[in-house]
Amino acid sequence: MNRSHGKILERFAKRLEGCECHRELLTSRMSWKSKKRKLKQESGHANCYMRSRQGAWFQGRGLSLLFAEIDSCTSDLLQELLSSMAPGERALLVRLQLELADRLKEELLDKLGFHRELPYCIIGIYYGEVIGGCVQRAKEILRKALDEFDTTVASGRGAKLHRVALY
């Protein structure tokens, strides 16, 4: 179970470090030196300016996708082991698996929850501009950020907002 969750986290970390325009190249099975050389041949540049700039994708889709994958996390080996167990033991292990997923999501939300708050959530408005992005989702993020801003200012707590959100 832990290995499966670890693989999901590793895959998302790699996604955040990469870029959509060269995703296939960066995830291919070749040495880093070969990848850099091929990137230089294909684009004429040693690096892609979008590399490690996946905040808009993470705001628009990534965080909810991460939680969905944690909820549905399994492996062939785990399913094989579960099918060979007695029903009582299987129920206990499934309950533990669900509890592990819930606690992992809770920990991630503690660590990454600031992405849903002002001013950090504002980067999500660029989700409509990235490859594979959605303008409608970007507008939803913007509406939510503006509503949060208006509510905070109207309640007299505007001074508690981050200075970036005020300008």
Describe the structure.
The chain has 167 residues and is mainly alpha-helical. It has three domains: 1-18 and 54-113, no CATH class; 19-51, no CATH class; 117-167, no CATH class. It has eight helices and no strands. The protein has helices at 2-17, 23-26, 32-43, 55-71, 76-84, 87-112, 135-154, 163-166. Helix 1 packs antiparallel against helix 4. The termini are far apart.
Short description:
With 167 residues, the chain is mostly helical. The chain contains eight helices and no strands. The chain folds into three domains: 78 residues, no CATH class; 33 residues, no CATH class; 51 residues, no CATH class.
Determine the N-to-C terminus distance. 45 Å
Q: Helix amount, in percent?
A: 55-70%
- Shape, please? flat
**Largest sheet at a glance?**
none
- SSE pattern, N- to C-terminal: HHHHHHHH
| Class by alpha and beta content | mainly alpha
User: Can you give the mean pLDDT?
Assistant: 86
Q: How many strand segments?
A: 0
Specify Rg, calculated over alpha carbons: 20 Å
Oligomer: single chain
Q: What number of domains?
A: 3
Contiguous runs where pLDDT drops below 50 for at least 5 residues: none
